From TrEMBL:
This is FCRL2 protein. The gene is Fcrl2. SMART domains: IG, IGc2. It is found in: Membrane. InterPro entries: Cell_adhesion_signaling, Ig-like_dom, Ig-like_dom_sf, Ig-like_fold, Ig_sub, Ig_sub2. GO terms for biological process: cell-cell adhesion. Pfam families: Ig_3 (PF13927). GO terms for molecular function: cell adhesion molecule binding. It comes from the Eukaryota.
Amino acid sequence: PVSGVSLAAQPPTGQVARGERLVLLCSVAAGPGPLSFSWHRQGSPTPLATGPRYELPAVQQRDGGTYYCRASNGGSAANSASLGVTVLGERDPRAL
């Protein structure tokens, strides 16, 4: 069976300024066979995307929430722990 599904984020805290990029990565410790991945946000009935990587190039306020990934090998599936994504206010252009 699929096990040890983990989610990593860049930035790692899950806090990102509006307009910044957020990258979520899903990995599996164990699981035979070809793996498929799907991305979910709590409260949404349909997957957001598929594949081991999910990227939001310019985060908006509506992108905040709790995310998790699901890995499956056709015979079994497992979810990662959830990650809360917080969208902070507008990036200050003077900080560049």
